[in-house]
Amino acid sequence: MLQNITYFSAPGKANTAEALSIAKKRAQELGVRQIVLASSHGYTAQEAANVFAGTGIELIAVTISEGYREEGWCMTPEERQEAARAGVKVLTAHMSLSGGVADAFAEPGSPPSVIANTLYCFSQGMKVAVEITIMAAEAGWVPTNQEVIAIAGSDQGADTAIVLVPACARRFKELRIREILCKPRVG
Fold first, then answer.
1. Quick one: which of 1, 6, 73, 90 is 20 to 30 A from 43 by CA?
2. b/e map 13-51, b = 16+ CB within 10 Å
3. What span, in angstroms and rounded, lies between the C-alpha atoms of 98 and 106?
């Protein structure tokens, strides 16, 4: 099998439209029925709703837990309602690879920290894409025996998309990244 990977020259929001378009095309080719995407304030969710309109593909926006409200990273009730009106399901959950109890005790060598930092070697979006998929699996919103596409980014917007088979946290070693569709080349 020969597949292309799109490498963006810089990370960030400017890549959102192309990342979503790449993910849509591959989802349709593979028959993927669910897209998991990171969206802190609804921008990526709204853009995805526009791109995936009429496809029948379910969009699940995963947002960060209330523990990050002080940082300004949490979706407001109004932003959540806008996403829902656009047909996007919104899941708010605790991050599965960082921000947990181990972080409170500054244990940088904890398994979740090692996994997160390894994924960061690819890109911030790669770490987030894997993490939000685990979060969605934990909530029972995606199956752990079918491929989904996860879309995430660096700071704002989307710049990374992958095809993967999800896993719940306690079965993390069963998670499989099948394809990298796009990611920043640097950053």
1. 6
2. bebbeebbebbbebbeeeebbbbbbbbbbbbbbbbbbeb
3. 11
> For the whole prediction, is pTM greater than 0.70?
yes
pLDDT recorded at residue 102: 60
For 156, left (φ over 0), alpha (ψ -120 to 50), or beta?
beta
Alpha-carbon gap, residue 136 to 35, rounded angstroms: 10
